[in-house]
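To the team - 2-oxoglutaric acid complex, inputs and output below.
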Amino acid sequence: MRIGLVQMSMEFANPDNNYKKAEELIRLAAKENPDTIVLPETWNTGVFPVENIKELCDKNGKQTIELFSYLSKELNVNIIAGSVVNEKEGEIYNTSYIFNKKGECIAEYDKTHLFSFMHEDDYFKKGNRVTTFELDGVKCGVIICYDIRFLELVRTLALQGIKILFVVAQWPVSRIKHWEILNEARAIENQIFVACVNSCGTAGETIYGGHSALINPWGETIAKASYEEEIITGDFDMKIFDKIRNTINVYNDRRTDLYR
Ligand SMILES: O=C(O)CCC(=O)C(=O)O
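Output:
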């Protein structure tokens, strides 16, 4: 599967411009003929939370679903639409929507671990379920930013059989080392591909650190971005699973009598 990561900088609290820009960047990314294109976290508002967040956010994913159903079908590409700030039944969620090449919205995931250090939990409601879906016959999962610190969540997805983990984030440059190590570790320990996309530029007072990457189940980097706005593309070769799991087979060697 060929993957394109859109490392985007967004305009703070300006969804109209951010939707236009996301469309332009998706069209640009599509020129490399990827099977799947991925956007970063909360690119519609460039949150961190602002007071008028309820006016700025999407409503039940309407604007997001309209745009990406159309684009994914027209461009014949799967789209992981990063995540958007999204109102559902009066509550605000950090929601990721997933589209297949036919333009169908096949899955949605609400961020389950809210970043209390930055008071995300004062504004957002937690999602309550893990999400898997199939793209071109490959089982995948998606998580959002702070979720990557919770190895149990990724192991749960891995035990459900995902082969690719998509991580969408707005991760600050000040902790970019953690971002790099956590993504590599989740790939190695679970023997899965990781496609992690971060934003760049600034939102409020925070500088986001880029370093989006495509990592294989052996922990090797297939493609990596730097700090600036950039699109990177690379190929995930699914044949690698046989090679790895026939050598170090952590799934066979797990001690489920001691832990789950
Ligand atoms: O865990 C971190 O250091 C960053 C997390 C974060 O910025 C977020 O989840 O929004």
